[in-house]
């Protein structure tokens, strides 16, 4: 059973100041001692996380543990109160919003409705960082936009109104818009929210395929630990704004993780075909039990 702690099972302590820029540049994403919060409320505290190029990482944890905030920090939409976030060795805080958007695409958990907009028009919005405001005035899709439509399988819907699509269809279109940014890093904030099981699997299998075809680095927030164990190379569990566990699914998905991070009693088995961990949650743990678990973690 892996050791679960604030710093995570793979935690090795603060970065060595002697690390060179060349060494750091090997990481697609490097989160070095990042903290973030609002007046009277700490959201993230001393987060240390490195993601290798081409790696697929799932962030898991209870609501309010800081998962979405961490994605927004990596995407440059928020600034840390301490520490720094590096993309390919460059500090996000020193990059313009448009320069960051050329490196990382973020699929938000939810988005406003887009009345009167076709699928093609919405996906083209992903080209803003590359084409700029004047370039967006040009008619027609460039090769990147056309590829994004085709890769997600929505090219035949190009002239349909977005508001006429089902929830699963709209999510695929939003994924195509993120791909149209043509970045090496794709951040997905709960991409399966509000989707039925069929469309959840469809979206996640599409992400896996696109990651392999495009050599993408993927970090996604998932509520379903079973999906995280199946579709990600690595799971990072957050609890109370800190990294509680970090490692491959087969090593860290245990009954202890269910209890101490997700607050449920349960069992963990192994899928007989795929070999990934399968979770069988039994019941939520009472607050008193969670408090005792907190004492063990800290």
TrEMBL record:
<dbReference type="InterPro" id="IPR017871">
    <property type="entry name" value="ABC_transporter-like_CS"/>
</dbReference>
<feature type="domain" description="ABC transporter">
    <location>
        <begin position="29"/>
        <end position="265"/>
    </location>
</feature>
<dbReference type="InterPro" id="IPR003593">
    <property type="entry name" value="AAA+_ATPase"/>
</dbReference>
<keyword id="KW-0408">Iron</keyword>
<dbReference type="InterPro" id="IPR003439">
    <property type="entry name" value="ABC_transporter-like_ATP-bd"/>
</dbReference>
<dbReference type="GO" id="GO:0006826">
    <property type="term" value="P:iron ion transport"/>
</dbReference>
<dbReference type="GO" id="GO:0005886">
    <property type="term" value="C:plasma membrane"/>
</dbReference>
<keyword id="KW-0472">Membrane</keyword>
<keyword id="KW-0547">Nucleotide-binding</keyword>
<keyword id="KW-0067">ATP-binding</keyword>
<dbReference type="GO" id="GO:0005524">
    <property type="term" value="F:ATP binding"/>
</dbReference>
<keyword id="KW-1003">Cell membrane</keyword>
<dbReference type="InterPro" id="IPR051535">
    <property type="entry name" value="Siderophore_ABC-ATPase"/>
</dbReference>
<keyword id="KW-0410">Iron transport</keyword>
<dbReference type="GO" id="GO:0016887">
    <property type="term" value="F:ATP hydrolysis activity"/>
</dbReference>
<keyword id="KW-0406">Ion transport</keyword>
<keyword id="KW-0813">Transport</keyword>
<dbReference type="InterPro" id="IPR027417">
    <property type="entry name" value="P-loop_NTPase"/>
</dbReference>
<protein>
    <submittedName>
        <fullName>Iron complex transport system ATP-binding protein</fullName>
    </submittedName>
</protein>
<dbReference type="Pfam" id="PF00005">
    <property type="entry name" value="ABC_tran"/>
</dbReference>
<feature type="region of interest" description="Disordered">
    <location>
        <begin position="1"/>
        <end position="21"/>
    </location>
</feature>
């Amino acid at each position: 059973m892996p050791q679960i702690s604030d710093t995570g099972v793979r935690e090795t302590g603060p970065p060595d100041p002697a690390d060179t820029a060349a060494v750091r540049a090997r990481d697609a994403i490097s989160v070095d001692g990042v903290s973030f919060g609002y007046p009277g409320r700490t959201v993230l505290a001393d987060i240390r996380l490195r993601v290798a190029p081409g790696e697929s990482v799932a962030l898991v944890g209870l609501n309010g543990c800081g998962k979405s905030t961490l994605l927004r920090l990596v995407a440059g939409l928020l600034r840390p109160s301490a520490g720094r976030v590096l993309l390919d060795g460059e500090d996000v805080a020193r990059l313009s919003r448009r320069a960051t958007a050329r490196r990382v695409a973020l699929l938000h958990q939810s988005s406003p409705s887009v009345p009167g907009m076709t699928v093609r028009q919405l996906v083209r919005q992903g080209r803003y960082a590359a084409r700029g405001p004047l370039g967006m005035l040009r008619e027609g899709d460039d090769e990147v936009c056309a590829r994004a439509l085709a890769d997600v399988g929505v090219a035949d819907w190009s002239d349909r109104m977005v508001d006429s699509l089902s929830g699963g269809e709209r999510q695929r279109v939003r994924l195509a818009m993120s791909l149209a940014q043509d970045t090496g890093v794709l951040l997905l904030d709960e991409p399966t929210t509000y989707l039925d099981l069929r469309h959840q699997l469809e979206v996640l299998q599409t992400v896996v395929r696109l990651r392999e075809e495009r050599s993408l680095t993927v970090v996604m927030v998932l509520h379903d630990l079973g999906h995280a164990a199946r579709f990600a190379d690595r799971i990072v569990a957050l609890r109370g704004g800190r990294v509680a566990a970090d490692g491959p699914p087969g090593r860290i998905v245990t009954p202890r993780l269910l209890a101490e991070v997700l607050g449920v009693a349960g069992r963990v088995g192994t899928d007989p075909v795929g070999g990934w961990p399968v979770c069988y949650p039994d019941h939520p743990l009472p607050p008193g039990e969670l408090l005792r678990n907190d004492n063990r973690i800290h």
